[in-house]
Write a structure and sequence with these properties.
alpha+beta, minor pseudopilin epsh fold, 2 helices, about 30% helix, elongated
């Protein structure tokens, strides 16, 4: 007697189209719910990086002013993310010799930098975040005359006056840093919060 192969095949287990669609939809809902939290963390990380960059520049200004025995200026472009550090002389901030070539005290430090993409300087008491992510221009393409003087660090390491800077980033609450002139103490708070 010859055995005939069975006409029944074993069907491999699998998923139906309905099951695949339901799982995909569920993953989409979870991703949509997580996106605002991720964006919020991203905004805060950028604001923190901007604050750290400015604090480091202030420390550089203070150190150079003490080391060289002359005042150093910190300037920003309001509405953009560009900032600049240089001696507080016209040879660095206006006219033709903006890099200090004509400085009788010798060439001082000139440093231009930008905040992280999307972060910009706002007017003190300024409003909501910028609607554009293009808040900086390339380093070196901004004229020194465009920088607003925010702080001047004197030869003794103090600032000429208290300074308050507002940082804004789309989707995040604006943040303020405050520099005390005599002590150099820096405090950080959300815009609208009291000291």
């Amino acid at each position: 007697m010859v055995l005939q192969p069975s006409s029944r095949r074993l069907i491999a287990p699998g998923y139906t189209l309905l099951e695949v669609v339901l799982v995909t939809a569920l993953l989409g809902v979870v991703a949509a719910m997580a996106t605002p939290a991720i964006n919020s963390m991203y905004a805060h990380q950028r604001l923190d990086a901007a604050i750290d960059a400015v604090r480091a520049s202030w420390a550089t200004c203070r150190a150079k002013a003490v080391d060289e025995g002359r005042p150093y200026r910190f300037g920003v472009v309001v509405g953009k993310g560009n900032f600049r550090v240089a001696p507080d002389r016209d040879a660095y901030w206006g006219g033709d010799g903006v890099n200090g070539e004509d400085d009788p005290e010798g060439h001082g430090l000139v440093k231009e930098a930008t905040l992280p993409a999307g972060v910009s300087f706002a007017q003190s008491g300024g409003g909501a975040g910028s609607s554009s992510m293009e808040t900086t221009v390339p380093v070196g393409s901004t004229s020194p005359q465009e920088f607003s003087k925010l702080a001047v660090f004197k030869e003794d390491g103090t600032s000429s006056e208290d300074v308050e800077i507002v940082f804004q980033f789309r989707g995040a609450r604006p943040t303020v840093i405050h520099l005390r002139a005599l002590t150099g103490t820096v405090t950080v708070r959300p815009l609208g919060a009291t000291h």
